[in-house]
Each structure stands twice: as C-alpha cells, then as structure tokens.
Amino acid sequence: MILPIVAYGDPVLRKVAKEIPENYPKLNDLLDNMWETMYNASGVGLAAPQIGLPVRLFLVDTTPFANDEELSPEEQKQLNGFKKTFINAYITEERGEEWAFNEGCLSIPDVREDVKRKDTLTITYFDENFKEHTETYNGLLARVIQHEYDHIEGILFTDKLSPLKKRMIKGRLNNISKGKINVDYRMRFPNMKKGR
Length: 196
Fold this sequence. Notes:
By secondary structure, this protein is α+β, with helices and mostly antiparallel strands. About 25% of the residues lie in helices and about 30% in strands. The chain has a single domain, classed as Peptide deformylase (Peptide Deformylase). It is built from four helices and seven strands. It has a five-stranded antiparallel β-sheet with strand order 2-3-4-5-6, sandwiched between helices. It has a two-stranded parallel sheet with strand order 1-7.
C-alpha cells in the first residue's frame, strides 16, 4: 500500500526516533508498504518518520544511482543492487574528508542543495530478520545512509545548509509545509488532515 509522505513542517520529522522491538506489530507489512511508497515516489531511501512513524527504521536502494556515468565503474558496481533495511541503526563513526553533493528529500520536494558530509561511516543495525550487522560504507552509499539516518535523529538535510542558503529557501519551505506544491506522489501536509 502506498502511504502518504509527510511534508516539511510536520513535528514527526523533528523527533529523535525510538527503537523498535523484534516483535513490532506487522513489521513485514510496514516494510512492504515503505518499499512500495519509496519506489512510487522514485526515492532511493525512506525513513519511518517520513510516513509519520517516529521509529528507528529506514530503507535504502541505491540502484538508480548505478547508471550515473560520472561515477567510476567500481562505484557503479557498489551502488547497483544495494538494497537494505536498517532497524535500530546507530552510526558509530564518521571519518574522512567532507565532500559536497546535491541532495534532495521526498519530504522536501523541489528543493535540492549541496550538503557536505564525511566520506566514510561505520553503522550498527538490525536487518528485517533482526540479525545484527556492523558495516562500513563510503562515498555515495555512505551519503544516502547518512541522509536517511539523519531522519531517525530528527535532522533534515536543510539543517546542514549555511544561514544564507537557509534564508534563500525559507519561502519555498513554508510553501511546502502549507501544501502549496505540486508533486506526483501522495503527501501529508502539516496543516491538512488527509493526504492527497
């Protein structure tokens, strides 16, 4: 089932998400719905707060980035078919050079800005079967994970912009929170009761 994506301005996007237990009700249904919602909106990642649930859960599928001709063959191979569920994730280390990349967000449509993030991260998480993993990622893969991880920490990519950039996009962000935007996927706006 395709769920509405929560728009910028909704308080759920600012909450530090809570861990979920292994017996979380209807977890498989929730995951199926999140994958369907993400693909319907042409996203490469989706976090539970973006569908209104303040829990530590996000999905990543970087396959669409694998066709980027500006990437090296090694990077393309790393991104192609990378599809994972991250439950109760914690980044334990971020290191390396900071680099800028143009980011967007399904909760903040039509706003894209360069964001600096460290190149490499180590993350501990549980997969959909509640098997624990500790893994290290770098480059674009790390960036997508960092972006989704921020969502479960109540952080948006726009928080990482300079004060000047924030002022420049303030009007656009206000319009998004009021539902004054055209998108081709379902959204739920803070001042509206039902998604469209």
